Amino acid sequence: MSDTKTPTANDLTAEQKDSIRKDFDFFDRDQDGQIDLREFIDLLTILSPKTKINHVQEGFNIIDSNGDGHIDFEEFLAWWQEGWWEY
Predict the structure, then answer these.
(1) Residue 8 and residue 82 in contact, taking contact as beta carbons nearer than 8 Å
(2) pTM of the predicted model, to two decimals?
């Protein structure tokens, strides 16, 4: 069993955070600082074309940890670090 842990936002370098921020900004099409459900669907279509649309809302709700109906950068960062987008 590995003792490897997922790095937290505090473990990332400024360069790594900047790179993830660029990805976030790319998907934040209207540049309002948050990803809404439509933008999230676009994100999943690009990252995982085989994503089933009926799973999108469930995934969105998981990432939207504060339940405000949008994914902000901190929520996106946590999701990106977990590697969920790789599935």
Answers:
(1) no
(2) 0.78
Q: Judge: domain 14-86, CATH 1.20.120.450.
A: no
Sign of CA dihedral 52, 57, 58, 60: positive
Q: Could you tell me the residue ranges of all domains in the chain?
A: 14-86
**Which structure tokens are listed for 5?**
């842990």
Q: Note the pLDDT of residue 61.
A: 94
**Cα distance between the two ends of the chain:** 22
Strand ranges in 1-87 using DSSP code E only, listed in sequence order:
34-35, 71-72
Cα–Cα distance, 80 to 54 (Å, whole number): 21
Q: Are 39 and 27 in contact (CB under 8 A)?
A: yes
Question: 70 forms bridges with which residues in the sheet?
Answer: none
- Residues paired with residue 71 on neighbouring β-strands, in sequence order: 35
Q: How far apart are CA 20 and CA 61, in angstroms?
A: 20
